[in-house]
Write a structure and sequence with these properties.
Layout lengths: L1 H4 L6 H9 L8 H13 L2 H19 L3 H24 L19 H20 L4 H21 L5 H29 L5
Helix pairs in contact: 3-7, 4-5, 4-6, 5-6, 5-8, 6-7, 6-8, 7-8
Length: 192
Amino acid sequence: TTRVARGGPGFGWDRWVDDTLPRRGGGAAPLHFVADAITTVANPPLTMALLLAAVALWAMRSRTMWPVVATAPAVVGLTVTVLVGKWLLARPGPPGSEPVDILGAYPSGHTATALVCTGTLAVLFARRHAPYRRGLALAVAGWTTLVAWSLLWLHYHWLSDVLGGALLGALLLWLLYRWPWYLIATKAPGRR
């Protein structure tokens, strides 16, 4: 983030990845179709709406508000940090990328949203069904990787944009779900 704030690509790999991938219209057409479909599905407002709909249904079915209460901080934290980061840094995307209006390309909101929204569902589900924890973590990592690849393939973001989005998403998940539970477990009676 510090290198990005100083201007230009944060890493030499940004330009290398952007130059190595085929330009729009080049490369395999099915890959463009898949990448475009993934970025459409991973659109942050749509992804957040799907997450909120899923937890609302879960709350109605379980007759408890805990899924909504556990999800709300993730949605608010994600939205605020991504938008503030984009606004403060106002970093342009790769050459030929679609304009990002008044906001910049760093961090990638698609990547952060993919990780936080699917990660939130996975954490909540794994709290009730612990045997699925590893598979859910792999599914979250796989989806986030596909979203990041799609953004790079379509030249919407630099590599450091998607890495920044992934790191932001991981930090938010850790702060919201892992760290508080660790503190609760270590403060429990009979634990040192």
